[in-house]
Amino acid sequence: MSDDIEPFGIRLGAAVEAHGPVCAGIDPHPSLLEAWDLPVSVKGLRRFAEIAVEAFGGEVALVKPQSAFFERFGAAGIEILEDVLAGLREMGTLSLLDVKRGDIGSTMLAYAQAYLDDSSTLRADAITVSPFLGLGSLAPAFDLARRTGRGVFVLAMTSNPEGASVQHAVWDGDTVGGAIIDAVSELNALAPADGFGDVGMVVGATVGKDIADLGLTERLVQSRAPLLAPGVGAQGATVGDVGRGFGVAASLVLPATSRAVLSAGPDVAALRAALSAVQEEASGLRLRVEQ
Ligand SMILES: O=c1ccn([C@@H]2O[C@H](COP(=O)(O)O)[C@@H](O)[C@H]2O)c(=O)[nH]1
Questions:
Q1: What pLDDT is recorded for position 285?
Q2: Is residue 2, in this structure, part of any structural domain at all?
Q3: CA 270 to ligand 1 center in whole angstroms
Q4: Is there an atom of ligand 1 within 6 Å of 230 CB?
Q5: Is 217 among the domain residues?
Q6: From start to end of the chain, where are the E strands?
Q7: Using CA atoms, how far apart are residues 192 and 207, in angstroms rounded to an integer?
Q8: What GO MF annotations does this protein's record show (predicted)?
């Protein structure tokens, strides 16, 4: 990495300091397009995306567009996703593109170039990746992210109920999720003790109780990883659940919510008010942890 590129963990730390830890999702579900009185079409997608960027840009630490809802419209949807990422960049708001990529190393390099290279029109500040081809296969993404000051969030304990059958499974004396947490700790070994590392993890807001039960709390703290915690709102978790479940690891958590806030749209002020209510709750969470 050249000297003038600021590492992702530092940029994220500054954004959280300025706006609090909440991550706002842009998930243009067909039902939301309809609820916003927009056609379920490329035209409707574009308007939805423009409103969401206007509402969240400059207001929140991190915005997470869900790639699937753009990809489903083909090339025209990808073009709108590029515009969302460019719009957030212009507004100085960090983007985390939720694409959950993972493949053999040589193919992973191409995915990394698509999302993490300075020359790509689809570049984001960070992406989500899946470690289930082995964490080592993700090395091209870790390497390119480090060189360009970007971040990578590894799926560790996902928010969906089906995730436990794989992630809680025990292999060689440890859970799969626990082994991923320790591997990410090694990647973040040089991270500052009081800040975020550049490699994050996805640990669902819905799995707080499992974290404590599986004895993973302290290992999460050791990882220095920013912990994206989707599941707040539509999946039933609350910011309070994050505080109770993550315990001392809660200071690393970025509670993420999409549908619950987006359902307040299309009015920009109403979207901001819904976001701000979650931000308010999350600031209480950080205070409680620091006590
Ligand atoms: O474990 C995971 C990983 C990713 N997600 C994604 O987050 C949002 C959640 O949306 P809500 O509307 O707030 O439920 C969505 O894009 C998921 O694909 C997740 O939910 N859980």
A1: 63
A2: no
A3: 22
A4: yes
A5: yes
A6: 23-26, 62-65, 94-101, 126-129, 151-157, 170-171, 174-175, 199-203, 227-230, 253-257
A7: 27
A8: orotidine-5'-phosphate decarboxylase activity
pLDDT value of position 1: 61
With a 6 Å cutoff on the Cβ, whether 235 touches ligand 1 is: yes
**11 vs 14: CA distance, rounded Å:** 5
Ligand 1 pocket test: which of 84, 98, 180 has the largest number of ligand atoms within 8 Å of its C-beta? 98
Residue 239 is encoded by which pair of tokens? Answer: 């910011």
Please give the distance, rounded to the nearest whole angstrom, from the Cα atom of residue 267 to the centre of ligand 1: 23
Domain-embedded: residue 252: yes
Q: How confident is the model at residue 4 (pLDDT cuts 50, 70, 90)?
A: confident
pTM of this structure: 0.97
Return the residue matching tokens 């969470």: 285
In angstroms, the Cα distances linking 92 to 58, 144, 184 are: 7, 21, 27
162 alpha carbon – ligand 1 mean position (Å): 13
Q: Kindly list the catalytic residues.
A: 100
* CATH number of the domain to which 87 belongs: 3.20.20.70
135: containing domain: 8-283
Protein residue whose Cα sits closest to atom 19 of ligand 1: 230
Residue 1 lies in a domain: no
Does an H or E element contain 167, and which?
Answer: helix 164-167
Answer whether residue 289 shows pLDDT above 90.
no
Give the count of domains, the chain.
1
Ligand 1 midpoint to CA 237 (Å): 12
